[in-house]
Specification:
The chain has 228 residues and is mainly α. It contains nine helices and three strands. Strand 1 and strand 2 form a beta hairpin. The model has no long low-confidence stretch (mean pLDDT 92).
C-alpha cells in the first residue's frame, strides 16, 4: 500500500514552516519535552506519524523526535484535520489558547434513545416474576409479554430486582452528572446553561457530555485556525 502522505512529505513540511509555534507545541506536548524548546521544524511526515527536529534553549544541538498518529491516518486528506486537532489539544493543554466558553446548550439527537435503552434494560434485566398481574392485564398476558426476558434470565442467570437496577443506573448517571459539572466549570458560561447540561446528563446520560466535549473540540479547532 502506497503512503500518500509520505509521497507529499516535502510539500507538507514546507507548509508547516509557516507555523513554528504549532511545531514547538507538538514537541512539548506530544513529545513530553519539559525543557524550553526554542525552535522546531517538521522533517518528515507519513500516515503513521511525523518527525520533528527541535532545539533547546540550553543547547545549540538539534534533537529529533518521532510523534505517532493515534490512530494512523488512512489518506492524504486526513492530514490537515488531524494536525489541527493535535494543534488544538497541544495549545489548549499548554495554556497558549484560552479555554473555549460555551454560552448555549445543544441537545444531541442520539440522546433521545436513552429512555428506550432504559426500558430495554428493565425489560431484560428486571422483569416481574411469573404470575404477576398489571393493571387490568391478567397474569397470562403479562407472562407472555415478558417470556423472552424470563428466557434470557434463565439462560444467562443474569438479572436484578427493579430497585437494584434503578440504583445502579442512578449511580452511573449521577457520576456522569458530576463529570459534566466539571466540564461545565471549565468550558460553559452561565448558570442556566450549566444546570441544563447537568440535568440533561442525569436524565439522558453519556450522549450529553460527549456532545459537550465535541463542541469544545470544535471551538478549539476554530480558535487554532485563527492562531499564528
Amino acid at each position: 500500500m502506497s503512503d500518500s502522505i509520505a509521497s507529499n512529505s516535502s510539500s507538507l513540511c514546507a507548509y508547516m514552516k509557516n507555523y513554528p509555534t504549532t511545531l514547538v507545541a507538538y514537541v512539548k506536548y506530544f513529545g513530553n519535552i519539559e525543557d524550553n524548546v526554542t525552535t522546531a521544524e517538521m522533517s518528515s511526515i507519513d500516515l503513521k506519524g511525523m518527525t520533528l527536529v527541535y532545539k533547546l534553549l540550553s543547547s545549540s544541538q538539534s534533537h529529533s523526535i518521532r510523534i505517532p498518529f493515534d490512530p494512523p491516518l488512512s489518506k492524504y486528506d486526513d492530514a490537515k484535520p488531524r494536525l489541527l486537532s493535535m494543534k488544538a489539544q497541544a495549545l489548549g493543554v499548554l495554556g497558549t489558547l484560552k479555554a473555549p466558553q460555551l454560552t448555549t446548550f445543544r441537545f444531541p439527537p442520539k440522546a433521545i434513545l436513552t429512555p428506550f435503552i432504559f426500558l430495554a434494560y428493565f425489560y431484560l434485566l428486571a422483569p416481574p416474576p411469573p404470575g404477576t398481574t398489571f393493571l387490568s392485564f391478567p397474569a397470562t398476558t403479562v407472562d407472555t409479554f415478558f417470556y423472552p426476558a424470563h428466557a434470557f434470565g434463565n439462560f444467562t442467570g443474569f438479572g436484578f430486582a427493579p430497585r437494584t437496577l434503578a440504583t445502579i443506573l442512578g449511580v452511573i448517571h449521577g457520576a456522569e452528572g458530576l463529570y459534566t459539572l466539571s466540564l461545565c466549570s471549565r468550558f460553559v458560561k452561565g448558570a442556566m446553561v450549566t444546570a441544563t447540561y447537568v440535568g440533561c446528563t442525569l436524565l439522558f446520560g453519556v450522549h450529553i457530555w460527549k456532545d459537550l466535549k465535541k463542541r469544545v473540540e470544535e471551538k478549539r479547532i476554530e480558535a487554532t485556525t485563527k492562531f499564528e
